[in-house]
Amino acid sequence: MDAITSGDCIKGVVPIENSLGGPINITYDLLSHDYDLKIESEIIININHNLLAPKGVKIEDITDVYSHYQALVQCHNYLEKMGFKIHPTSSTAYAAKIIQKSKNVSAIGTLKAAELYDLHVLKKNIQDATNNQTRFIVLSNNDSNNRINVKTAIVFSLYEDNPGGLYGILGIFAEFNINLTKIESRPSKKYLGDYIFFIDFEGHRKDENISKILTLIENNTSFFKVLGSYYLIE
């Protein structure tokens, strides 16, 4: 996200949801609070996790495992059965990098990471379920101009002491017969019990009815932000 904002790159790809671990909260938080970027498209990828270690290290030598928190969650059953001590890292790639010259440690990562960092694959496909998928979003300074099979993402917060506030916002979509595809809530980081809401729904933000909906929501919320209109890359 920093690289897009600074102009070092045009687009970036980040995970936002996993079929086993659920939403990637840090992505939601960064999009709502820290970066003014747009979601251009989404990609859904089948995820296979592998146990990697420096060459010469055997699986019976392993005591500790490093990886991104989501990878650790998605491999919970295997890690618990093996009795490994887990260590969250900023990414699976970073985990593979930092164990290169270590003993008694391993990382959960991709086969490509094993190739890049000269690691041995001790065991393939250690994730808890075979239908493990992660939804990634492509970020840029502009969202998609595609108007077919497109969705729009927004984030907003409600006014304080407003009974039925969320019900009222959701009712706007029902009034215009717009289908919601996802709804998430996250702490607003202001105080305990205060939340912001993320909603994805069918349609492009520039469509006539969608534009009306966005105006109504903005006029009835204390904080409102359009995260972009995007399509699925297949």
Show the helix and strand layout:
Elements: H1 2-6, E1 12-18, E2 22-23, H2 25-34, E3 38-46, E4 50-54, E5 64-68, H3 69-74, H4 76-82, E6 85-89, H5 92-98, E7 105-109, H6 111-116, E8 119-123, E9 133-140, E10 150-157, H7 165-175, E11 180-187, E12 195-202, H8 208-219, E13 223-233
Structure description:
The chain has helices at about 1-5, 25-35, 70-75, 75-80, 90-100, 110-115, 165-175, 210-220, and strands at about 10-20, 20-25, 40-45, 50-55, 65-70, 85-90, 105-110, 120-125, 135-140, 150-155, 180-185, 195-200, 225-234. The chain has about 230 residues and is of the alpha+beta class. The longest helix is centred in the C-terminal third of the chain and has 12 residues, at about 210-220. The protein is elongated and about 60 Å long.
Ranges where pLDDT stays below 50 over 5 or more residues in a row are: none
Q: What fraction, in percent, of the residue positions are helical?
A: 25-40%
Characterize the main sheet. 8 strands, mixed
Query: What is the count of helical runs?
Result: 8
**What is the number of strand segments?**
13
Using brief descriptors, characterize the structure shown.
234 residues; alpha+beta; five-stranded mixed β-sheet
Short description:
The chain is α+β, with helices and mostly antiparallel strands. The chain has eight helices and 13 strands.
